[in-house]
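User: Before I run my own analysis I want an independent prediction to cross-check against. Here's the chain; please return only the structure tokens and, at the end, one sentence I can use as a sanity check.
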Amino acid sequence: MTLHPDAVVTLSSWRPPTPEQERLRERFVTHLQDHDDGVWRTCFPDHLTAGTLVVDESVTRVLLNLHGKAKRWFAFGGHCEGGDTTLAAAAAREATEESGITGLRLDPVPAHLDEHTVGFCDPRGLVQHLDVRYVAVAPAASVPAVSDESLDVRWWSLDALPELEPEMHELIAVARARFG
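Assistant: Structure tokens:
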């Protein structure tokens, strides 16, 4: 299976936990049905992206990166690439590349969907990232490394998180429910 059909199957079969997540799921599936290139950044102005929230084994800490362009703390993620055959594989690749941690244990079921506007992604103008987010557990004693895309990568206690977008708190709640 290639990435586009995998994305259609993954999102069509996923059962969202809330009405808002269902609305986004329907939006993403419709986008894929309307655009054969809907998983690639060449699809303008909307395209799928894949991300991963990394947690420690006790699910008491999350690993976040200070995004180099946005200057905000986020989970890991980005654009799908030619070698990605599944959305889960794209999310795992992005998390490994951006965290510097190998051996992440990725839950292959999407955890959360998010749609957000990005102004620095494409020279043609504003784009909509249709982000499919997963959760992964890092091996014990994992030491992260800063990638070229980040200003910092750091473990954060769930009791002392930095300022985050509201949807990041939703994603953390899903991670706690799945692995906690």
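Sanity check: The CA atoms of residues 16 and 23 lie 9 Å apart.
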